[in-house]
Amino acid sequence: MDSHFISGLILNKYYQDPGIRVSRYSLEGEKNHHAYYNRLGFIRVYAKDFTPAHLDPEEVKNTNKQFYEKATNVLESKKNMVFSPEGYSYSTDDSPGPFNEGIFKLACGMKNDPLIVPVVMANFDKLASETTFKCEIKPPFRLSEQGVNSANDSSFPLFIENLNKQYKNWVYELKQENTNFKLEIETLKNSVDKIKEKEGLVVFYGSSTIRLWKNLKEDFSQPNFLNLGFGGAFIHSLSEFFETLFQFENPKAIVLYLGGNDLTLGFSPEQIFEKINKLVFKIKKKYPNVLIFHVSVKPSLERINELDKIKKINYLLKNQSSEINGFIQIDVYESLLTHEYNFMKSTLKTFPIFGGINPILNTTIIHPNNEKTFLEIKCLFMDVHNSLSQLFHCC
Q1: Beta strand 327-330 with 81-82: parallel, antiparallel or unpaired?
Q2: What is the rounded CA–CA span in Å between residue 91 and residue 89?
Q3: In terms of Cα–Cα distance, which of 101, 141, 98, 96 is closest to 121?
Q4: What pTM was estimated for this model as a whole?
Q5: How far is Cα 29 from Cα 50, in angstroms, rounded to an integer?
Q6: What is the DSSP code (8-state) at residue 366?
Q7: Pairing of the two strands 202-206 and 225-227
C-alpha cells in the first residue's frame, strides 16, 4: 500500500507518471496478484518467501540479476523508479529491515549518478480507521555526495549501514502521534519564551503556509517577527491554542492564514467564515488595538473542485474587513490563480524531484527544506509582501 501511495498520490498526481516499481513474481495460486502486476510493466524479481519451490536456485539468481540491466534502462530513460531497499515487507514497528546492497550498487555503476530520494512511511500496515497514514520526503542526495563512488569502496557498506540507522530514526520520529499538535505547540512555546523583546511583535499565525515561511525577517524590513504557524492547523486548533501561545503584550500586528484546511472537514463557506470571524473577535478582545492582516485563502490544484467555495470565503471576509476596525484582508487569490495554472506547470519541469512540487501545491506531505519559501514568497506572495511592507512602514 505504501508503494501505491508513492506511485499514485505523488508521482502520478504531479508528474502524470507513476514511475516504474520493482515487484515480486506471483506464486502459482495468486491469479489476482498476477493479473494486477503483470499489466503494469514493472520490473519483476523473485522475493524471499515468495519463490516457487520447484525453481532451481541458480535460475532464481540469474533471473534476479537481470534487475540491474532493466533498472539501468529505466533510469537512463529519465523515468522515476520506486523501490524498497529491504526487498521485503516489515511492519512500521520493525521498519526498516536490513537494506540490500542491490539498488545502491546499481547507482554506483551508472555513468550519471542518479538522485536518491528517501521517502519515509509509517502506519501503512494498519487500518485507516485506526491510525494516521504518514509520509515524509527527505532531501535527495547522490551517492557521490556521500563519498561513495564505487561498490568496492570501503565506505560503501558503512554508508548503507548508516543510512539504515538513519531510516530507523526517521520512522520512529514519524510514527509518533502528535496528538492535538502537542509537540508543535511545545516547540512554539519555547520559541516565544526565547524572545527577549516581546513588545511590538509582528506575529504570523496559521497553518503550514505560515509554518513553512522560514525567512520572514529577510523578506520584510521589520526585525521583530515571530512565526507561530503549525502544519495542518484548523481554525478551531488556532483558536484553542491562541491563549497558550500569545503570552505577551501588545503585538504590533498579527498576520493570519487559515480556512483552507477546514474545507476538508466538510464545512460550508459560511461556516468557515463564522469560525474565522469568532477567532478575529477573540484576538480583538485580548488585543483591542492590534492590526490583523488576513491573507485570503489561496487556490491550489489540491482543491480545484472547491474554488467556488474558496472565492465565497474570501468574498465574505473582504466585506467583513470593512466592518471591523484594524482588520485588513490581503487578497492573493487572483494573482495566485494565474501562477497556479501557468507558473506552476513550468515549475514542475524546473524541479524534477519531489521537493519541487510539494511546496506550491500545498500537499499533505511533510517537506523539510525551504523550496516553499522561495517559490511562494518570491514568486507568488508578492501581494502579501507589498501590502504588509507598506502598512508596517506607516504604522
Answers
A1: unpaired
A2: 7
A3: 96
A4: 0.58
A5: 11
A6: B
A7: parallel
